[in-house]
Amino acid sequence: MFAAFPLLALPILVYNLVALTLQGGFGSQAASARFSEPLFTVAMTSGSPWPVSLSDLLLAGALVVLFIELLKSTTSRRIAIINHSLSMILFIVCLVEFLLAPAFATSAFFLMTVMVLLDVLAGFIVTIVAARRDIDLAGGGGDLN
Question: Which of 42, 88, 90, 108 measures 20 to 30 Å from 10, CA to CA?
Answer without folding.
Answer: 42
